[in-house]
Model the fold of this input.
Amino acid sequence: MATIVMKFGGTSVADIERIRHAARHVKREVDAGHKVCVVVSAMSGKTNELVAWTREAAAVHDAREYDAVVASGEQVSAGLMSIVLQEMGVPARSFAGWQVPIETSDAHGSARITNIDPKLLFDRMDAGLVCVVTGFQGVSPHGRITTLGRGGSDTSAVAVAAAVEADRCDIYTDVDGVYTTDPRIVPKAQRIERISFEEMLEMASLGAKVLQTRSVELAMAKKVRLVVRSSFDDPDQVPPLGENGDWQGPGTLVCDEDEIMEKQIVSGVTCAKSEAKITLRGVKDNPGVAAAVFGPLADAQIVVDMIVQNISDDGKSTDITFTIPDAEFDKAMTVLKEAGETSLEFDSISGSKGGAKISVIGVGMRSHAGVAASMFRALSDKSINIQLITTSEIKTSVLIEEEYAELAVRALHTYYGLDIEEA
Ligand code: ADP
Ligand code: ASP
Ligand code: MG
Done:
């Protein structure tokens, strides 16, 4: 007998019929004798609607009340999932974040889970109940409802899996695994059988929204076996968990690198749109200049991503270019212009929205030179201009114009031999 956490995303609980279908997956595991915690997202589109309502109510609003509103979607799906399970003869009970409790920081809108006391979940599972837990939400030290940031139900699921020491955390979604790139952009994308935590972490943080980045971080830290699979599969055709806990079915297993025999140089390609770029020219090149630029941005809670700095020939001034989300562009320009009047000396400031960051990721890059060079060649073959470049041990990213994003992803996917072979 194993303990399994089963997470269902928005499209997997989009209406009562889909909830019934998801519940049949749950029933299969229960019938096989396993203890099960289910974690649910809001019905598809619901969170967007709730977020829009808070904005309509007031453009600038109290983050605590934002959380009170947007967390409600998950409560609806958890209750409905329990009702449907009960109707199928599977004893089930729903729990909101505060009831478990899922304790979080008080950073409303993007809270971090700090602790989950598993006692109640253990008690209820031991009593033969399926625990249906709301994803995406928790409770702050002040006893208020918090939410974990968009896509946060993945993180709820992994955190619950770690707390109840689950043998596996199954993320049921609308694709049948993690693909070499978003299968909605590149139909020739292939499902990856096994992917390392490190690669999945890079893919998630660089734009593959199939898993929330924090969920992968947490799974890696807590050694949670994570499987991404489709809720659209026929629940009766999927083989149950093997005797020794091995995964026998479809989907993608996210696991330690040493569980993967064949190491790809490039495992995946990602795309993140809506990246803005700002350039400061003729910045006086004193020690501490970078701090003078990025300090005010950090104080304004603006997250800076790629940074490039060029020293001028005479060594007296420097040009600094960096990227931020499009949504922060106006704020960042204002902050820097204000700094220009006080603490920071520069000749000019310019910038534009509408960039896309395209990345190639693979653990094989550690031992293979030339991936960056070949990436630049593949893009230049398509006449795509590269504006910025960053690299790390297992990834290379470039900033390009958004309108070429799909073309670039397809070109790189083909270039690195990731296209699925025609049958
Ligand atoms: P859920 O509602 O189940 O959480 P999401 O919409 O958050 O589902 O994530 C699933 C989506 O992620 C897929 O429909 C797919 O379009 C997208 N996606 C982006 N990159 C990838 C990738 N590399 N592999 C699989 N899916 C991806
Ligand atoms: N419902 C939330 C969202 O749409 C959380 C999630 O689906 O993971 O972001
Ligand atoms: Mg999601």
Summary: The first strand starts at residue 3 and ends at 8. The chain has a mean pLDDT of 93. The chain has twelve helices and 18 strands. The pocket of magnesium ion (ligand 3) is lined by residues 9, 151, 154 (CB under 6 Å).
